[in-house]
Each structure stands twice: as structure tokens, then as C-alpha cells.
Amino acid sequence: MHYKIHHATILLLLVFISLGSCVKMKSYDIGSTVPDAEKPSNQGEVNPAGYLYPFGKEVQGVEAEISLTLASDAQIGADLIATIPTLKYNKNLLFMLTQDDCKQSAFSMTWAAIHGKPIDISDPKRKYYYDIENLEADDLPPNAYTLGKTLGSTDGFGNEVRFHFTTTLAPEWDYMNVPTTVRPGFTGNYYRFYMKSGLRWNNVRELLNTGNAVALHDVKTLALNDVDSLVKHFAIAQQITQQALAGRRVKFLAEPNGNKTYLAAAMQFPDIQTMTAQSGASVLIPYQVASDLHKTTLARVFINDPAQAKDLVLRAQSMTPQDRPAVYLGVHETDREWAEFLLWLNDTYGKDGLDNIWFPSQEEYYEYHYYRQHCAINVSSQGDAVKIKVKFPSQPHFYYPALTLNIPGLKMKMIKSVTSSASVTGLSYGDFDEGISINFDTRQYLFEHADHYVKKYLSKKSTSSLADAYYHIGALKNNEQKQELLKMLP
Which of 63, 94, 406, 467 is 20 to 30 A from 185 via CA? Predict the structure, then answer.
């Protein structure tokens, strides 16, 4: 198949609305509006390090093996092949979202809406925010409510895959380390729910635990047009991030303020492998991509109203999958209207609708596409046994070692059993098109991750934490360990 990348100037989709540049309201300059004399005391302030999946310990270059035992009457061809579809889970509509400026609402609004957690009612006169510590202590803003469901699509076989997005970080600014105030039941004032300068590391940890991603954005230098200075500060920000996130590094840059010097610096900084910008970038048409996208800058569009986002999705959906561009949005602050837009995505194209949308972070999409280009796949058959071996490339700072495989010429009625090597930790499969499809994951700590959420539910039972526990167990392959976790839940 012939692939290509189109540039922004030739895509009518982005002409549909005006492209707003990332006009930044510096998140590190936006503090609480509480007058100094009225700020609360330190009573209830906490800043413990939260749980984080051990990304820094993940193994690169994993080899996975999946074995199929055929039924005695199965008749198969001698030339079985396995292919990796353009989009994960065989979806055909790609949607991505980056939230710039390290905004606190990335956690208490965007993430919370997706995961069925309370969100602020968004009164224009006073918007409220909260941190992970507040959520875990049931210390929430007044009038907070939920959308009544989690938001996502499925893996094609009934397992939920929640929407994933990207938040930018501000590692060089101290506000990511500030403590937060937790005072359950205190209604004398709500100062603790006023907007902070930005995200805190503990909020970021939970974002990462649930499949979301991070990006570099602004760095703390006055020499904003000096490549050498930016590269130096990329390294500083990377070191801070690696320490705060137990070894996880950033490989994604979201251009700030339309400053192309950041992109030039990213080309010289090896850790940055994928970038996004709102002008002068390549529009992503997934079915027409030829390269592995390494060091490629993908185009996103900033909009002022979620209604415009809905129009972009509808416009993309009206095109054939082969010509359909990714709907890639940038946003700064999110509110209740954005949460309702995400709900619409879920109900229209997600698990409660057509179920044809894949909503990953750019980092996850980049890794999947890179694997699609560089994984070595071998399918062999002997007698009633079919073995599929997949060798992942050893690429630094990759955190999403998971693929979808399609194998034409087989149907589940022809298969007696499916097993996998120990390196495969997540596995789902079923009939698809003229064959079968297999989703598999090789994250090495997936069981421990699910176990964490089971224990979290058992320590403080709620409907939401139970849903989270089932969700993370659902990512595991079916084995005795998974069954033991399920026995612990109602």
C-alpha cells in the first residue's frame, strides 16, 4: 500500500474553522484568587507521594508468543499471516487531545469526567478545582456531580478502554510540588478548591496510572529564541520529571505560543521523539502515513467552543476511513461543556455508540504506529498448533507495548484454545472480518497494577472504586492470578 503525509495547507478539515494559536496564559503565573489575609492555615495540608506504575522498570524489546491450538476438524491454509491494523482495536476514527499549560483542570475536569469522578458544576462566577488527595478523602467542592458513567470505547471484545489524553508539564516550576489542603466536611469557606497555579505531581501520577500521557511545553528560560538554552532546559526538565515519576521520561513536546524555536530544539534533543504544533505541521491521515513518524511534528487545532469540536468530528466521520484525518485538538482550560463533549463522544462513537473511535494520547499513538512499522512478526503452524511470535523493537522511553493483530483465514470455531507466553500480560481475542483479531499487552507490572486498584477498593469501598478495580482487572489476560483478583470483588 502507498502511504503519504498531507500538510495542513491541503486539508479542508482544518480550514473549516480558524486555527487559533496556543495563546498562552502562563499557568505558573496564575495563582489562587484568595487574598493573602484570607488564605487558610496549614491545617490539613498534605503532600505524600502517591502510587505510580513502575514505568522506569519496564523491559524494552520484549518478545511475545501467542499459541493457538486448533480444533481437530479445522482446515487452514499453509500461508497464515498476522498484520497490525492502522488503528488499535481495528477502529477507524482517531481522536487525540492535548491540554496545555499544566492546568489543574486536566485532573479535576478532563480526567475526572472520563473516569466517572465528580466534576465542578462550573458556575462562571466561581469555578472550583480539587486534587487527588481531596478526591480520596471525599473532600469535594460544593455541588460537584458526575456524568453517571465512565467514558471510552471497547477493545472490540467487550472490554472497556477509557479515553486517554495528554497533559503538559511544568517541571521547573515549584508549584508542581506544593502541598494541598484536605478538610473533609469543612464548609466555612472553599478556598482549598480555588484554582492552583497548575497540576501537582500527585495528580500527574494518577493521570499516568490510568493510561494518559505527559509532554514538555514551556521551560524556565528567558532565552526563548535560543536553541541551546532550550535544549539545556529540556534536559533540566527531563531530570526533574524522571525523579518525580520514578524513572519515566518525556518524549513528546507540545509547542508553546507558536514558538518554532522549541521545535528546532526538540530536533536536537534525543529524548523528544514526537511533537505537535498548531501551524506548519503535518496533518495526520492515519491510513496514508508512510514513515514511522519519528521526529515528526503533527498538526493540532485549538478551538474556543466544544461545539466546534463536535463539528470537526462529524466532518471527519463523513469521510471514508482511507481519507479520514485524525481529529486532533489542543485546549487550555476545560469546563463542564468540555466534559459534556467527551460524554457525547462516548455516546456517539464510543462504547455506548458506534464504538469506532480510538482516543489515545499522541504518545500512545506514536508508539503503536512505530511498532506497526518495526515489529518483527512470525507465524508458523505445525499439525494442530499455530504460533505467533512478535518481537518489539528496543526503543528508549516507550511505555505502551501493546498491539492488535489480525489473522485472516481463521475463525474462533476453528480454535480449541489460546495461550500465551509469560511476557504477555493482557490478552483478548475474537472473530473479526474474515478472520480473528487478537489484542495483547506486554506491560510487565499489569497484574500488580490491577492488584493496587483492588486493594484501593477494599480499603475504601465505593461504586466508583469498584468500577476502577474491574476496569484494571479487565486489562489482564485470563489466568489464575486474574481469577484470584476477581474473587476479592463482589
Answer: 467
